[in-house]
Amino acid sequence: MLELVQQGAPDPMFTLKKIADADNDPRKVDLGVGVYRNEDGRYQELEVVRRAKKILDGLDLGHDYASTTGDEEFLRLGAAVLFGENCEALISGRVSSVQTISGTGANSLGASLIASTVPSTKVYIGLPTWGNHVPIFQHAGLEVVTYDYLDSTRHAVDFENLLDNVREAPLGSVFVLQGCCHNPTGVDLSPQQWGELAQELSTYNQVAFIDIAYQGLGDGLAEDATGLRTLADAGLEMLVCQSFSKNFALYGERCGALHVVSQKSWLAEIVKDQLRSIIRKTYSSSPAYGSRLVKIVLSDQSLRTLWLKKNRQNLLSHIDAHHIPGDWSYLVSERGLFSCLQLTPAQCRTLVDHHHVHLPENGRINIAGLSEENIERAAKALKSVVCLGSKVRL
Ligand SMILES: Cc1ncc(COP(=O)(O)O)c(C=O)c1O
User: How far is the CA of 184 from the centre of ligand 1 (A)?
Assistant: First the structure.
């Protein structure tokens, strides 16, 4: 039998990672996989995860099986992060949440739910997209219809094209959309477009399938969830895939959830039971470690604040407090992981050589490398190199 097995479809990311891992050249810069790195190009653990690990260690919870559908408190907290505490669908019990093997597992489980319920469902996916979307739905046996997501001449969403597809698709089709920080284009729908889309999906009775793998890494937790919250408030049927890989830097722990929003609470109970049944047949239960850490953070107000802390704003406040000359306001108008401090190469070298503040000569800093513990030292060091000759002591 095994001589009949064919090679799997090639995966460019798998090959890229293999080549990058095998490259031991000190000049290596790995820009391939979507993982945040520190200045040495190594894994960057979040401060808040480090603290949660210590707490978890003390709890000594053992390694029993998790329940098939997952930890209910983790799921409740995760759903609130997505939909907001006051979401009507959550309050009225219309959301069925189950733990999954991270975002990929949530997509796959959602696809299985659709395939086992209405196998003839057409799944609409805008291209380009995350390389796994089309394979996941096809693997579940569903027909995938693709359309152009991006109007590359304007570098904007081809929104009219998306709406045309919503209007022309057979009723009850599924539209896969990314909640925020679109991979790979970085181009998201605007809040107005989400509103318009919600109306059209509702009019044409289509189902939204939202994949949100980067919540909190765009404009903020609530802002990044604007789209899916707009759809939920419009009373649509929808599936939402939640990943904690990126926003908690828990990539290898495979921590995530699938949340299915039904139009009636009694339907939500049946949906949850069907999900239980599919999970049992496929992976039985999800890994517990990552979800235990996320639960500790989300249920503790001070850890939660630390998770949400705005390093950019924090650095600017320290700079203001030390009256460091110059206009540093760009720190809070920029987004993402990096910022280029307006320093000369000589100033950067002084920071490294005399203050142990490591940054390249172009002044690019990893904002995530700042913590409560080191931000004050970094600000003082910055002051001493900017105010040359000043006698700031570290
Ligand atoms: C859009 C999107 N969805 C889902 C995922 C799945 O990630 P994970 O399985 O680690 O949660 C990724 C990962 O890169 C992604 O970019």
Answer: 11
